[in-house]
Design a protein that fits this description.
five-stranded mixed sheet, 35 strands, four-stranded antiparallel sheet, mainly beta
Length: about 425
């Protein structure tokens, strides 16, 4: 934890020799809250300007008294942000990709990961269980974070990385991960997996771990509509068929049978139907569930239902798809999401709906009431969702629910928010 030392903080224009904008001591415009230093100058900062911030050795120390923060300088600017990827929350295992391999720490407002990124990998598991992933505009795939115990970073080793490392290849199209493993699709329609292979989740007819990508069969008709759950994987082919493999716990294979947890499929098996449009699964501990849309705008769910997450106004488990009322559910790739045993979906009219458990206000309804059928989150301009973080058509980003590790990105305290609050920015 940080504490104040002695010495002034100096804010200058452009660089170390620039004009002094403000010079202040720790305790005036500088405040300390546990492990975070906040500097709030009294002077207004000008737009499109570069600034230089410095302080001498001894200005800040730690509570143990054995470490002195050396004289440090930061250059920053108020120019418009360049296109990039931003991340916030828990930094365990270097999960923020900042080349900081610390075990503990968090960031409660967005920080940028340099590079020209085009696709962010959807991670459907809880913190610390899988790597973060993203694809650049040049088709290269990068991963970072995790404890790498199953080789889920795809580097043919079990090493942890706190900044992005590349997976070989330049034609990657989509990636997702959960439970110490990842799956990805290339532009040529091939599908690949790596990491833990428990329950046959890598579709290699075995349960072997692989620390570098292995191809799923020889098929070249896989689309980018893929999802990896806690113990089951899902993918849609170009002919509209939906395929699943892994554990059938809670009936999440959607084949009409609920076999015991130790019964599974280690190669793809088809879910009935030929008009599937999108699929999303739950990667959290506890009950497993899946949701998918068809091209006719209908929404279907199956699997565990302890908290009403299947949206049927009951708690009955389903081992084959059951329909959620309505025919105007969006079939977009970012229109479905699952949380900790909860579900989220966007309709074509821009409305957002959520249901399931609501202990920390994660459904966004300004209460903590559990709902076993869809209830609308206020607003009619929602465009994309990853659960309790959602984008609107005006490119504003909103978040709600539990705020541990600052995951709501609002630079705010509080344990949770039960209705949407905006993450700063409109881009």
């Amino acid at each position: 934890l940080i504490k104040a030392g002695s010495g002034n903080v100096t804010l200058r224009l452009v660089g170390a020799a620039g004009t002094v904008v403000e010079n202040f001591g720790v305790g005036s415009s500088v405040t300390i809250n546990q492990n975070r230093i906040t500097i709030d100058p009294t002077a207004n900062l000008e737009a499109d300007t570069v600034y230089h911030l410095s302080y001498p050795s001894g200005a800040f120390t730690n509570t143990g008294g054995d470490i002195s923060y050396v004289g440090t300088a930061y250059t920053f600017d108020t120019r418009s942000l360049q296109p990039g990827m931003f991340i916030w929350g828990n930094n365990s295992y270097g999960g923020l990709g900042q080349n900081d391999n610390q075990t503990y720490g968090s960031v409660s407002s967005p920080i940028q990961i340099p590079g020209n990124w085009s696709v962010m990998g959807k991670q459907t598991s809880s913190a610390g269980e899988c790597a973060s992933s993203a694809i650049k505009t040049d088709g290269t795939l990068w991963l970072w974070g995790s404890d790498a115990e199953s080789g889920e970073l795809g580097q043919n080793n079990r090493v942890r990385y706190s900044s992005p490392v590349q997976i070989p290849g330049t034609t990657w199209a989509n990636v997702c991960g959960a439970n110490n493993g990842n799956m990805a699709v290339k532009t040529d329609g091939t599908m690949w997996g790596w990491g833990t292979g428990g329950f046959g989740m890598l579709a290699q007819n075995n349960e072997t771990q692989y620390s570098s990508p292995v191809q799923v069969g020889s098929d070249t008709t896989w689309t980018t509509k893929i999802s990896r759950g806690k113990m089951t994987s899902y993918a849609i082919k170009t002919d509209g068929t939906l395929w699943v493999w892994g554990s059938n716990a809670y009936g999440v294979l959607g084949k009409g049978t609920n076999t015991p947890d130790n019964v599974h499929y280690s190669s793809p098996v088809q879910v009935p139907g030929t008009t599937w449009a999108n699929v999303m699964s739950s990667g959290y501990s506890g009950q497993q569930l899946a949701m998918a849309t068809k091209t006719d705008g209908t929404l279907w769910m199956w699997g565990g239902n302890n908290f009403g997450a299947l949206g049927q106004n009951n708690l009955t488990e389903r081992s084959s798809p059951v329909q959620i009322p309505g025919t105007n559910w969006s079939t977009g790739q970012d229109a479905l999401a699952t949380g900790a045993q909860s579900a989220y979906a966007i309709k074509t009219d821009g409305t957002l709906w959520s249901w399931g458990p609501n202990v920390n206000g994660q459904l966004g309804h300004n209460n903590q009431i559990k709902y076993s059928s869809p209830v609308q989150v206020p607003g009619t301009t929602w465009s994309k969702t990853i659960g309790r973080v959602c984008l609107k058509t005006d490119n504003t980003l909103w978040a709600w629910g539990q705020n541990q590790y600052g995951v709501l990105g609002n630079n705010t305290g509080g344990t949770y928010y039960s209705s949407p609050i905006q993450i700063p920015g409109t881009e």
